[in-house]
Write a structure and sequence with these properties.
By secondary structure, the protein is of the alpha/beta class. The protein folds into 2 domains: about 5-210, Vaccinia Virus protein VP39 (Rossmann fold, 3-Layer(aba) Sandwich), CATH 3.40.50; about 220-285, Orthogonal Bundle (Helicase, Ruva Protein, domain 3), CATH 1.10.8. The protein contains 12 helices and 9 strands. Strands 4-3-2-5-6-9-7 form a 7-stranded mixed beta sheet, with helices on both faces. Helix 6 (about 130-140) links the parallel strand 5 (about 120-125) and strand 6 (about 145-155). The longest helix has 13 residues, at about 220-230. The protein is elongated, with a radius of gyration of 21 Å. The structure holds S-adenosylmethionine. S-adenosylmethionine binds near residues 26, 61, 81 and 125. S-adenosylmethionine (SAM) binds near residues 27, 61, 81, 102 and 127.
């Protein structure tokens, strides 16, 4: 099968199957061999790896993954793509396509059954409408993952990688950085896709921490505090935590905790590092 990274080959397949793109599934297929090669390189795929691909589309990246990995499991929601994938991936015996919504797949079970519970790599050109639930699902369900290398909206990639005091820093940055080390490895313009998306894209690689970066007593409290801190960005931490419907912590308790940490009572969430949020959460957990 000729590589689908070349636009002419993609067009040929789409015409052969009279395929029409579904906007609701975030379908923007890659048509640039350089970008595809870059993703494979940055994902550091070896012949030992099992790769989970989310949304294979017509199998453009799947072909590269099959060439480089030991085994590929690809989960695709769109029924119309299944016969196409049978065709484009027909010459590979190391791929398994599952016709399902990724948000409904028990990925822990998949890792156990398909990779004896050993760590997998996740690689995808993600459907942008569900970027956050897919990534947070992998983290929160503690799926045994080595790294996640994904194409996302550039703006989202910047938020994932942002540090304290920047405009992009927020709950997503802290969640991603709590679980992993993010690195933007490529910027990808709209003309690398068919159809062209309205936004710029970026490839971000997240290597999961082997040991947690901060050890905290109550993970659920930490994330409630983080969500509260950024839900009202312009308010002080004391006020936003006190106003949160998820928490019942008085202003006095937050102020005392900040004093204990040597921080100003007027500080905003955007100024705190992950380590400081961890410390704050541990102090408030004791109270
Ligand atoms: N990997 C292909 C490529 O790079 O050309 C396609 C990428 S396209 C941005 C996203 C793909 O995810 C589409 O094939 C779409 O049908 C699929 N998709 C959308 N929602 C999904 C879901 N909930 N579960 C699984 N696949 C999904």
């Amino acid at each position: 099968m000729a590589t689908l990274g070349i636009p002419k080959n993609t067009i040929e397949i789409l015409q052969k199957y009279n395929f029409s793109f579904q906007k609701k599934f975030g379908q923007n297929f890659l048509i640039d061999t350089h970008v595809l090669e870059r993703i494979i390189k940055e994902a550091e795929i070896t012949k030992d790896d099992m790769v989970l691909e989310i949304g294979p589309g017509i199998g453009t990246m799947t072909q590269y993954l099959c060439e480089n990995a030991r085994k590929v499991v690809a989960v695709e929601i769109d029924n119309n793509l299944i016969p196409i994938l049978k065709d484009t991936l027909g010459s590979y015996d190391n791929v398994c396509v599952i016709n399902e919504d990724i948000l409904k797949v028990d990925i822990n079970k998949l890792v156990l059954e398909e990779n004896e519970g050993k760590p997998i790599k996740v690689v995808a050109n993600l459907p942008y409408y569900i970027t956050t639930p897919i990534i947070m699902g992998l983290f929160e369900k503690k799926v045994n993952v080595d790294s996640i290398t994904v194409m996302v909206q550039k703006e989202v990639a910047l938020r994932m990688q942002a540090g304290p005091g920047t405009k992009d820093y927020g709950a997503l940055s802290l969640a991603v950085q709590y679980y992993s080390e993010p690195d933007i490895v490529a910027n990808v313009p709209p003309n690398c896709f068919m159809p062209r998306p309205n936004v710029s894209s970026a490839v971000i690689r997240m290597k999961l921490h082997k040991q947690p970066k901060v050890i905290i007593e109550n993970e659920s409290l930490l994330f409630k505090i983080i969500r509260a801190s950024f839900s009202q960005r312009r308010k002080t931490l004391v006020n936003s935590i006190n106003n949160s419907s998820e928490l019942s912590i008085s202003k006095e308790h937050v102020a005392a905790a900040l004093n204990e940490m040597g921080l100003s009572e007027n500080i905003r969430g955007e100024a705190l590092t992950l380590e400081q949020f961890g410390e704050l959460s541990d102090i408030l957990n004791k109270q």
